[in-house]
Design goal:
This protein is mostly helical. It has 2 helices and no strands.
Length: 55
């Protein structure tokens, strides 16, 4: 979280959520195969340690 982000302020909280969503989207695009695998495992409650390289 950045210094100028106050999550108690509704407007600043929405800016924070939008910023995080955009960052998440960029990571999803860049590492699509890995991220899909991670999310699938999390959704199936199959959490594993390690590098998490998914085919």
């Amino acid at each position: 979280m950045k210094d100028d982000e106050d999550l108690y302020d509704k407007n600043l909280r929405m800016r924070f959520i939008l910023r995080i969503a955009k960052e998440f989207h960029q990571v999803m695009k860049k590492y699509e195969k890995n991220m899909s695998g991670y999310l699938s495992h999390i959704a199936n409650n199959n959490i594993v340690d390690g590098a998490g390289i998914y085919d």
